[in-house]
Structures are given as C-alpha cells and as structure tokens.
Input
Amino acid sequence: MVEAFHNNIIFPNKFTGDGETKMTKDGHRVESETYVGGHVEALEAGVFRADIPCKFRLTPAALKSLRDSVPETIEKELIREFGIPLENVVDFDERCAEVQETFDHLLAIPARMENPRIYHLDVGAMYPNIILTNRLQPCAMVNEEICMACTYNRPDAKCKRTMNWEWRGELSE
Output
C-alpha cells in the first residue's frame, strides 16, 4: 500500500504475477486469507486524545473497592512481577497511602471533565485485513527490533499484550 501511494496508484492489484500467488504446501492456491481471534474491547467507540477534554463517570463503589485493596495488590505485584519481598520495601505504607489518596480524589468527584491520558482507537468493527494493512495486529508482524525502536516502548507499555490469532484462508484446487 505504501508503494502504491508513492506511485499514485489508488487501488493496487492484489497479485501482479505467478511468483506472488500464495500456495499451500500441498499445492493449493490461497484465494484469500485473514486472521481470526484477536479482538478489542472498548467501553466507548471513538478516538480519545490527550488534548480534547472528555466526560468521565466513575463508579464510586468500584473505586472504593480498588482503594481498599491497594496494600494487597501492591504486595502481590511486588512479589509476582519484581520478585521483591515486602520486608525489603522501606516505604511500603507511604506508597500505599499515596495511591489511596489518589483514589480519594477520584471518589470526591466521580463525574469528571478531564483531558484523557490515553490514546484509544476502537478497532472492534474493523475487518481483519484493515487491521493487518494498518499494522495494528497481530503482534507477530512486529519483531523485537521494531518494538525496541518504537517511541512508546516503555516497561509499562500496554501495547505488548499478546493476542491469540488463527490463520483462516480460502483455497482453490
């Protein structure tokens, strides 16, 4: 698609020669192929940008439940993710208090108008070929080298979530 754009071709042909026709190992021609299985769950469709204010309605009961489970959650993650026993953490109670204070601020005003801190594109309704063309998924299309060069590559990056994909194709004899 990139080459077609640079050469002013609006609708490029899918195949230009016999050498590009995909064949299975047993000699069948692949008429069409797609990937099935990956999905995106979204509470609301659309693009959310950090520079456009958005209305958020938070559920106080859920926030309170999360607030109350902060010490257990942090302890579990310290041990599971980082292998750090609780005895080695000097300021555990202070850090838990900071997180709980953040929840208290959210509980004080559950109906909020803020600039989101996430970028979200709902691709739930996109066809798999569009997802593949735009390199949105599957993650097998991105190798470690591409991932390391990415601007958004951080230890806490959520883009590294692995999805289960299955190849599906239509064959001819």
